[in-house]
# Entry
Amino acid sequence: MIAERLSRPEPAELDAADRRIINRLQDGLPLVEAPFAAVAAEIDLSEGELLYRLERLRDSGVLSRFGPMYHAERLGGGLTLAALEVPEADFERVTAAVNAFPEVAHNYRREHRLNMWFVLATETPEGIAEAIEAIEAATGLPVFNMPKQEEFHVRLHLPV
# Structure
Protein backbone atom coordinates (compact mmCIF):
# COMPACT_ATOMS: atom_id res chain seq x y z
CA MET A 1 0.00 0.00 0.00
CA ILE A 2 1.46 3.29 -1.11
CA ALA A 3 0.13 6.78 -0.53
CA GLU A 4 3.16 8.95 -0.80
CA ARG A 5 5.16 10.45 -3.58
CA LEU A 6 7.76 8.01 -4.71
CA SER A 7 11.18 9.22 -5.70
CA ARG A 8 12.87 7.37 -8.51
CA PRO A 9 15.38 4.87 -7.17
CA GLU A 10 18.62 4.18 -8.95
CA PRO A 11 18.19 1.63 -11.73
CA ALA A 12 18.72 -1.91 -10.47
CA GLU A 13 21.64 -3.87 -11.81
CA LEU A 14 20.30 -7.07 -13.33
CA ASP A 15 22.33 -9.81 -14.90
CA ALA A 16 21.14 -11.91 -17.82
CA ALA A 17 19.61 -14.58 -15.57
CA ASP A 18 17.63 -11.96 -13.58
CA ARG A 19 16.32 -10.55 -16.86
CA ARG A 20 15.29 -13.98 -18.11
CA ILE A 21 13.44 -14.63 -14.84
CA ILE A 22 11.58 -11.32 -14.89
CA ASN A 23 10.69 -11.57 -18.55
CA ARG A 24 9.54 -15.19 -18.27
CA LEU A 25 7.52 -14.80 -15.06
CA GLN A 26 5.52 -11.92 -16.54
CA ASP A 27 3.85 -14.62 -18.65
CA GLY A 28 2.74 -16.53 -15.56
CA LEU A 29 3.50 -19.96 -14.20
CA PRO A 30 2.51 -23.18 -15.95
CA LEU A 31 -0.19 -25.29 -14.30
CA VAL A 32 2.02 -28.29 -13.59
CA GLU A 33 3.09 -30.13 -10.46
CA ALA A 34 6.40 -28.22 -10.16
CA PRO A 35 5.88 -24.86 -11.93
CA PHE A 36 9.12 -23.26 -10.76
CA ALA A 37 11.13 -26.27 -11.91
CA ALA A 38 9.43 -26.07 -15.32
CA VAL A 39 10.19 -22.36 -15.68
CA ALA A 40 13.76 -22.85 -14.45
CA ALA A 41 14.32 -25.49 -17.13
CA GLU A 42 12.98 -23.09 -19.79
CA ILE A 43 15.50 -20.42 -18.85
CA ASP A 44 18.49 -22.67 -18.15
CA LEU A 45 18.53 -22.41 -14.36
CA SER A 46 18.01 -24.90 -11.56
CA GLU A 47 14.80 -24.59 -9.58
CA GLY A 48 16.85 -23.61 -6.50
CA GLU A 49 18.69 -20.87 -8.39
CA LEU A 50 15.42 -19.50 -9.74
CA LEU A 51 13.83 -19.43 -6.27
CA TYR A 52 16.95 -17.87 -4.72
CA ARG A 53 17.11 -15.15 -7.36
CA LEU A 54 13.38 -14.47 -7.12
CA GLU A 55 13.67 -14.01 -3.36
CA ARG A 56 16.71 -11.73 -3.83
CA LEU A 57 14.83 -9.62 -6.40
CA ARG A 58 11.92 -9.25 -3.96
CA ASP A 59 14.11 -8.49 -0.95
CA SER A 60 16.07 -5.85 -2.86
CA GLY A 61 12.88 -4.15 -4.04
CA VAL A 62 13.44 -4.86 -7.74
CA LEU A 63 10.16 -6.78 -7.57
CA SER A 64 7.58 -5.22 -5.30
CA ARG A 65 5.16 -8.10 -5.54
CA PHE A 66 5.14 -11.63 -6.84
CA GLY A 67 1.96 -13.59 -6.47
CA PRO A 68 -1.23 -14.76 -8.09
CA MET A 69 -3.84 -12.39 -9.45
CA TYR A 70 -7.34 -13.47 -8.49
CA HIS A 71 -10.60 -12.38 -10.04
CA ALA A 72 -12.34 -11.47 -6.79
CA GLU A 73 -15.80 -11.27 -8.32
CA ARG A 74 -15.59 -14.73 -9.91
CA LEU A 75 -14.66 -16.05 -6.47
CA GLY A 76 -17.81 -14.49 -5.03
CA GLY A 77 -16.12 -11.41 -3.62
CA GLY A 78 -16.46 -7.70 -4.14
CA LEU A 79 -14.05 -5.31 -5.81
CA THR A 80 -14.18 -1.58 -6.38
CA LEU A 81 -12.05 1.48 -6.91
CA ALA A 82 -12.57 4.13 -4.24
CA ALA A 83 -11.29 7.64 -3.65
CA LEU A 84 -11.09 10.27 -0.96
CA GLU A 85 -10.60 14.03 -1.02
CA VAL A 86 -8.07 14.36 1.77
CA PRO A 87 -6.97 17.73 3.16
CA GLU A 88 -3.20 17.95 2.77
CA ALA A 89 -2.68 18.49 6.49
CA ASP A 90 -4.47 15.21 7.24
CA PHE A 91 -2.96 13.13 4.45
CA GLU A 92 -0.57 11.13 6.62
CA ARG A 93 -3.21 10.37 9.27
CA VAL A 94 -5.79 9.34 6.68
CA THR A 95 -3.24 7.20 4.82
CA ALA A 96 -2.50 5.26 8.01
CA ALA A 97 -6.21 4.86 8.75
CA VAL A 98 -7.06 3.62 5.24
CA ASN A 99 -4.06 1.32 5.01
CA ALA A 100 -5.03 -0.33 8.31
CA PHE A 101 -8.03 -1.95 6.60
CA PRO A 102 -7.23 -5.43 5.27
CA GLU A 103 -9.72 -4.84 2.45
CA VAL A 104 -7.47 -2.14 0.94
CA ALA A 105 -5.42 -3.80 -1.78
CA HIS A 106 -3.32 -0.77 -2.65
CA ASN A 107 -3.49 2.96 -2.12
CA TYR A 108 -2.07 5.76 -4.26
CA ARG A 109 -1.74 9.52 -4.00
CA ARG A 110 -3.17 11.34 -7.01
CA GLU A 111 -2.77 14.85 -8.35
CA HIS A 112 -6.50 15.49 -8.39
CA ARG A 113 -9.20 16.88 -6.12
CA LEU A 114 -9.78 13.24 -5.17
CA ASN A 115 -6.18 12.83 -4.09
CA MET A 116 -6.25 9.32 -2.59
CA TRP A 117 -7.36 6.34 -4.66
CA PHE A 118 -7.44 2.77 -3.44
CA VAL A 119 -8.86 -0.61 -4.39
CA LEU A 120 -11.17 -2.45 -2.03
CA ALA A 121 -11.44 -6.23 -2.24
CA THR A 122 -13.90 -8.01 0.02
CA GLU A 123 -15.05 -11.58 0.57
CA THR A 124 -18.61 -10.73 -0.50
CA PRO A 125 -20.11 -8.01 -2.72
CA GLU A 126 -21.92 -6.64 0.34
CA GLY A 127 -18.57 -6.23 2.07
CA ILE A 128 -17.75 -3.25 -0.14
CA ALA A 129 -20.45 -1.07 1.44
CA GLU A 130 -19.41 -2.24 4.90
CA ALA A 131 -15.74 -1.42 4.24
CA ILE A 132 -16.63 2.01 2.84
CA GLU A 133 -18.78 2.79 5.87
CA ALA A 134 -15.95 1.73 8.20
CA ILE A 135 -13.39 3.83 6.30
CA GLU A 136 -15.69 6.85 6.42
CA ALA A 137 -16.07 6.37 10.18
CA ALA A 138 -12.30 6.01 10.66
CA THR A 139 -11.32 8.98 8.49
CA GLY A 140 -14.30 11.32 8.88
CA LEU A 141 -14.30 11.73 5.08
CA PRO A 142 -16.80 10.57 2.44
CA VAL A 143 -15.56 7.72 0.25
CA PHE A 144 -16.32 7.98 -3.45
CA ASN A 145 -17.14 4.49 -4.70
CA MET A 146 -16.36 3.94 -8.39
CA PRO A 147 -17.45 0.37 -9.15
CA LYS A 148 -16.42 -1.24 -12.40
CA GLN A 149 -18.82 -0.58 -15.27
CA GLU A 150 -17.13 -2.73 -17.84
CA GLU A 151 -14.07 -4.95 -17.76
CA PHE A 152 -11.19 -4.76 -20.19
CA HIS A 153 -8.22 -7.06 -20.12
CA VAL A 154 -5.03 -5.23 -20.90
CA ARG A 155 -2.01 -7.44 -20.92
CA LEU A 156 0.99 -5.61 -19.59
CA HIS A 157 4.44 -6.99 -20.25
CA LEU A 158 7.48 -4.89 -19.49
CA PRO A 159 10.54 -6.54 -20.99
CA VAL A 160 13.79 -5.89 -19.14
User: Anything to note?
Assistant: The first strand starts at residue 78 and ends at 84. The chain has two domains: 16-60, 72-147. Residues 126-139 form the longest helix (14 residues).
